[in-house]
Batch of 4 targets.
Target 1
Amino acid sequence: MSNTEHNEQVEQRRAKLAQLRDAGEPYPNDFRREHRATEIISRCGDLDEAELKEQEFKVCVAGRLMTRRIMGKASFAHIRDETGDLQIYLQRDTLPEGTYQTTFKKLDLGDIVGINGTMFRTRTGELTVAATQLRLLVKSLRPLPEKFHGLTDIETRYRQRYLDLMVNTRSREVFRKRAATITALRRFLDERGYLEIESPIMQSIPGGANARPFITHHHALDMDLYLRVAQELSIKRCLVGGFERVYELNRNFRNEGLSTQHNPEFTMLEYNETYLDYHDYMDLTEEMLRQVVGEVMGVLQVPYQDALIDFAPPFERVTMVEAVCRENPPLTPADCLDSGQLTAYLRTIGLDSEPDKTCGELLLDLFEETVEVKLTQPTFITGYPAEVSPLARRNRANPQITDRFELFAAGRELANGFSELNDVDDQASRFLEQAAAKAKGDEEAMSYDADYITALEYGLPPNAGGGLGVDRFVMILTDSPSIRDVLLFPHMRPETSG
């Protein structure tokens, strides 16, 4: 549809609205719907035409007009409510006098209507409402997209999500599954005695993850504040205070680039429990995801793009060194502990590294470039270097690595967890290292959090923590290739004119 045609339709619809205003209230609010589409289908689905006629099942429905087929003195239409579509049959002689000509025929697709009637089946067997009353409840001033049976323009779907939801039933199902996933995650932890908390989104010091924060300014306090990048440090403060099982499911904000897997604000579930370690939390995380997948999907094998992600078998557990060597056969475990060997190998595969990177940082670079995308089935990676894990407890047998895991599936990170660092002096030292890196220009390095160190000085019980990227998890459950598909209102670059 051209802009001229679109504008002409808008003008015509506005002219109809003006007539409605002259006639009385154009946006009535006294219609009370009594039935939804799926309720009617569930109740009448097994009844044949004779049974429907005998029961004379009367309904009162409302929805958006999606199709209309006028055939002289009788017409068919479809309306759509939140639960689905319903066919309507309208006859001039069975509606109140004048309704068919002055109301129904003047309707436009997209208008919201209320209908009373009786259920019957057409010759083709479709459940249909034989309308006895029709009211226009809301005049739609803009025409539906041309392809209203399935809006395909990605930009329009993301920028005008209301249109996407209006015409794409699959999009509605995506967000129903997202809501069901969040409910199931909460239920899993609630049933295990976890306490849900809410930590501040605006913080004086950003912490809990290596990420570039958003900065805002509080005028009354005359101070800069940072949007939260993680909930972790607040949760662990609660453990210091005496709570033993704590979680938060909420938004985090990171000033990073946009991609199919990254949005500036995203939903994270972070959860900690005292007197457990990262082995226990791999077990807990695996159990939680398997249970949630089963509740939301009804099966444990989930199709995602060209793969089938299977949450039923035990998740594989492999160290980072083992994974790197498996995907890079020339390298040995000894090579993975040698900065020179790693630097040389990275060059052979076309990756140059910064000269001041540590061996652990080089190993992580190699893992992210050559291994991560190949981890299709749920896999725990352990043995993360200490220098890239500033909040994780060092491994007792090898202090160069930490008791940390990350869970990968469909070639991306889903969860991160570890035995939490509660040695106050070690934590203070790592904060100082992070602060030094920040001073050298690393915008993702953490700041020194003096209050958190004070909290640790009172004693943080041994505990394990985990964090689940809810958006990426939902992407898998809904077979969505982009994170924007599972966010109702994703961030978009401004539209350019001309």
Target 2
Amino acid sequence: MKKFIQTLKNIWSIDELRSKILVTIMLIAIYRLGTHIVLPGIDPTKIDTAAANKGGILGLIDAFAGGAFSQASILALGIMPYISASIFMQLMSILYPPFAKLQKEGESGRKKINQYTRYLTVLVALLQASAYVAYLNSPGYKEAIIGAYSSYFWISTTVTLTAGTLFVMWLGEKITDKGLGNGASVIIMVGILARLPQAFWQEWQAKIPTGGGGLLIFVIEIAFLIAIIMGLIVLIQGVRKIPVQYAKQIVGNRQFGGARQFLPMKVNSSGVMPIIFAQAIMFLPTLLSNFETTQGLARIFGDHSNFWYMLIYAVMVIGFTFLYTALIFNPKQIADDLKRNNGFIPGVKPGQPTADYIGSVMDKITLPGAVLLAVVGILPGFAQRLGVQPAFSSFFGGTSLLIMVGVILDTLQQIETQLLMRQYDGLMKTGRIQGRQTVSSAPI
């Protein structure tokens, strides 16, 4: 406890770090305030029933928006249009040569890509805002629209939601520039964490009335949740180190190079993206539930605790993990960079043999990483089958827990770096916090 208090004092004594923490807290508070402001023309007293009946992909969007989506807030779309645009631009930087060339131009190229991402965010936000207006005209929310406002509700809501998304994007960029961590990721994490107290309380209320046994079960659930978080930290930080040797160069009387370093290969280099892609695909059959021939299929894909749902979901996560890793990981580029810097892997020839070796190592560590990621993805379904409330079970794995743990590790890594730069001890006595450090540039 004394060590913890001293660490907090060290953090607060660093002016730059203290300023970053205060700016981050202030911007997060502004964002959370905005999520409670209801759209013009909506009666907030009439949307509670509709908000309680969300599910499927709408429930996922609502989780990322911190409940703003179901509450018809001016920030209902949250940061998701920007995330969608960022993912699209990231894939285009890999698959489309002109964007790949921009990516290699350094800072100027990245600025252009960021500018294109902002333009695309506006377009995506406009499309999603129009779809959200149609959603608000569905039974449940339609009754909450004030009659006198209905004639120009569509245009005002579309403009307000698009402006809200751009405001959230601006908050995220300010957190990245002047605060701690990646702003978009921090905003998503805050939205997810905002649901935790209510989910915790619902689980408590469901278990306590059953007597002493219910309290024991609740304590066991918390213990399992802590164990899952610890395992997820290992998965996120797990690396396979490939030794790299740099050739010696003698210039005059001085020697350069000759150092032995390591090339870290992430066990989970794809991050949370395979789970997001798999969830998006798994939600598609539920959209066909109105057709009689697909109602049985929709019931299976609409129940996260169904055996067939979890099996298909796990297979898709494993497949998307290999696919996304193949897209973002380029062993030939790494081999060329090593050769250009006079580096080589001991026992492996430079050039194509090095690329083949790095690729084979990546394939070997991707398989266990993909399997573990699939297990994390279906853990909420198992928790729900064991009697955990649906809201609380979502924190036992899946997208929510992966984003939370990953963003917290990244933020703690930045804090630790600031401490070590000023010759303070790190946050832990042994080891260093590594964060995600993926080759992916997507916000999450």
Target 3
Amino acid sequence: MTYRQRVVVGLSGGVDSAVSAHLLKAQGFEVIGIFMKNWEDDDNSEYCSSNVDFVDAAAVADVIGIEIEHVNFAAEYKDRVFAEFLREYQAGRTPNPDILCNAEIKFKAFLDHAMRLGAEKIATGHYARVRERNGGFELLKGLDPLKDQSYFLHRLNQTQLSKTLFPVGELPKTEVRRIATEIGLPNARKKDSTGICFIGERPFRDFLNRYIAKEPGPIKDPSGRTIGQHVGLSFYTLGQRQGLGIGGIKDKGAQKGGNEHAPWFVARKDIEKNTLWVVQGHEHPWLMSPALSAQDASWVAGHAPAAGGMAAKTRYRQADAPCTLEAPDDQHFTLRFSAPQWAVTPGQSAVVYNGEVCLGGGVITTDATTRF
């Protein structure tokens, strides 16, 4: 009997993981599907799609002809991801829980579970690639530039990458949907999920209201004038334009430049004084950062890369920004950009690239400028 390598695939109910499972089976692997339940506080809520997603995942497994297991990681998620999410918001920062979920749940708790099932590899539907080179493993961008998800995977380490397959990383999304339709997958035209898994499509502020107390305070413009009241600094993020409640107020300074009708944007959150600072105009100098500092660094290779010319993203879906990586070590680094970056946000991740290779990144602490 021919030996078949066992691969456990994370089936989310979406088309990307479904096609990943199909491709692996077609390549001769023994494929087992796992559906991860990471959130259960809203099982009966209109915003929680977990139950629907499992039905879709089970239907996919049936069509492909593989087993599927439902595994509950909600306790691990709450401890490792959601608790950190709340801590960061309460500190006035804007975290990215999807990055932490990948590092702590999908490629740790899920990986451990798969190994207990006798798997030699795991696979997910992420648009990224792994390359073995010089005895190590590199994380590469997905070939579809519109879908590349390496930004969310930058905290993966050598052990995790050595056991991971990304079957759709070589494909454009259009081809993934074509394959799904061709083989008759029931979710071939299912809309891509957006937003944070435990929030779903509900209004973000409504969700935070359940966990974080409101502490109203002043909204001030660059001249120090109080022009409104915020509902609590945790409910705002840098660069935010909607929901400020100050649309009819003009910045006196902006009037001189003929820009009196420009929209307002959040530019700074002063935690000590509980003050929200806003500016008028998308290109206001207070929104532009020539550099940033980051901590809690995580490098794919297991050690910091050499300083020098790189590219970086300070948010997902941003074009790579040319920059210089300065003083990188196992905890911190600085990025100095060729052109100032817009709304660099503490708590978000700065992810560093050398061409198509994702080197790793860290959590933004400051934009390394003095603006006030």
Target 4
Amino acid sequence: MLASTIANHHWIARDRASVEILRTVEKVKNTYSTLLIQGETGTGKDLLASLIHYSSLRRNEPFLRIDCSSIPAELIETELFGHEKGAFTGAYARKPGKLEFAGRGTIILDEIATLGMETQAKLLRVIEERTFGRLGGHEAIPVEARLIVLSRERLENLVRAGTFREDLFFRLNVIPIHLLPLRERADDILPLTKHFLQSFCERYEKGHLRVDRRVFSNLARYSFPGNVRELRNLVEGLVMLAEGEAIEPHHLPDAVRRKNSSQESRERPTLEQLERQYVTEILDFTRGRIGKAAAILGISRKTLLEKRKRYGLVD
């Protein structure tokens, strides 16, 4: 298992894909190239961006974040580029934007897919020319900050749909990182659970809570639609509500237990089904020769003939 811990930013990786992401971070953390991090909600895009910044040579410079989806379209450009006094009604004084405040630090653009086409075009020029201007101004201000772009939507799909500029996508896609959902990197579930368990036991002064192995089995089989964020919140709830010294399966949320119960009944064959399958395979292997098949199975010819009849394997 690999783990990276920088300034309280933990990235724990046992799954091959997660380990490869840590190796990529090590290679690119000190470059100037724009990074594109894509992945479902809750997969850890913000966490990885923080890890990149705080493990790089920019760690002591500003680290700023803009959530493009939470800022009205008419204000996003002011947020990014700033404005001059009198640039628009209500602009009573000059206001620097995040690009200016960031200096030599890092700017996170979260949910970039929500930017309008006009803002996308302006952002493209900033990336290409490495300069920008405040709204209503004429000064060309150099961009020294590194840009890390996050998106839960696959931008290439939006390009095909015509809602995202292809030229901007190519500019952003210099170093792409795709975070797989937790259901596709199940090897990370156990180490993440143990990490969150230790962290929350310390936070809530719970000492050392023992976890029934069946709890881990349930968690390993659950699909986690909310990904790592859902796992983290689930473990926090288990720790807060735990009574005594152990976390038992009945402490798990109903949704987790119901999902696993239905999966087990649907996916696990019965003993009879397994026996029928095995007998069938041996009969096929021996080309229907009862004596040889019975010898391999370790039963009598009579018992095998009875099983063959019971399982409907008679020609």
